[in-house]
Write a structure and sequence with these properties.
CATH topology: Glutaredoxin
Number of strands: 8
Radius of gyration: 17 Å
Distance between the termini: 40 Å
Order of helices and strands: HHHEEEEHHEHEHEEH
Number of helices: 8
Shape: globular
Number of domains: 1
Helix content: 25-40%
CATH class: Alpha Beta
CATH architecture: 3-Layer(aba) Sandwich
Structural class: alpha+beta
Oligomer: single chain
């Protein structure tokens, strides 16, 4: 369980702040969000999105989700997958990102939700058990998938997605982990298709993903 009162308080405050910010952002950038459905690469950059010139096929991998089930390459085929690398004891960037993803996913139409899954991969396997991930993700959206595994398995998967992080190896109990804040995008063929760079905006993230999907 997340027992640190500071982390719990931060999560509550961040979720509330993101909800308010999302409403303000939608209103303030309304003209931008009502722009063309199909965005070119320069417009996508304005939305924080980058699409690789050539998608990169992922190799087989095996991790475990928060329910204890195996999760591998076959589970990212057939739909789009947004992947964030973080950890449950993270003070700020992780709960902020997950709250924005919850806002984005929650605003999608049912047919769009059926075509997208959101995955958080822990960079802290020592503390992020399946139970811990399940409790943490339930604060944002119970449909989100949390993955853990051995440090070697997690780092191998991170390398496939061009994500860097610095594992904690000194044995301290209360520590933070430096990690990438990018949100990686896997296409329905099981290939790394692109990524989104922070800071994330709920409406922009939704519009950019829809545009990328339409041109796939």
């Amino acid at each position: 369980m997340v027992d640190d009162p500071k982390v719990k308080r931060n999560i509550r405050l961040i979720v509330a702040a993101v909800a308010i910010f999302a409403a303000v952002a939608i209103f303030s950038v309304g003209s931008k969000l009502s722009g063309p459905r199909i965005l070119n690469q320069y417009q996508l950059r304005d939305y924080g999105a980058r699409v690789l010139k050539e998608p990169v096929a992922l190799a087989e991998f095996t991790l475990n989700d928060q329910r204890g089930a195996s999760f591998g390459l076959e589970h990212v085929r057939g739909q789009w997958t947004m992947v964030f690398f973080g950890f449950t004891h993270c003070d700020d960037i992780c709960p902020t990102t997950m709250a924005i993803l919850a806002q984005t996913y929650g605003a999608l139409k049912p047919e769009d939700k059926a075509d997208l899954q959101v995955v958080m991969v822990t960079v802290d396997p020592a503390r992020d058990s399946a139970e811990q991930l399940a409790e943490y993700l339930a604060r944002f959206d119970s449909s989100f998938i949390g993955l853990n595994g051995s440090q070697d398995e997690l780092m191998a998967f991170a390398r496939q997605l061009l994500v860097a992080y610095e594992p904690e190896l000194d044995g301290k109990d209360n520590y933070q982990i430096a990690h990438s804040g990018n949100l990686m995008l896997i296409n329905p063929r099981g290939e790394l298709h692109g990524y989104f760079r922070p800071p994330f905006v709920h409406g922009s993230l939704r519009v950019a993903w829809r545009s990328i999907r339409e041109t796939f």
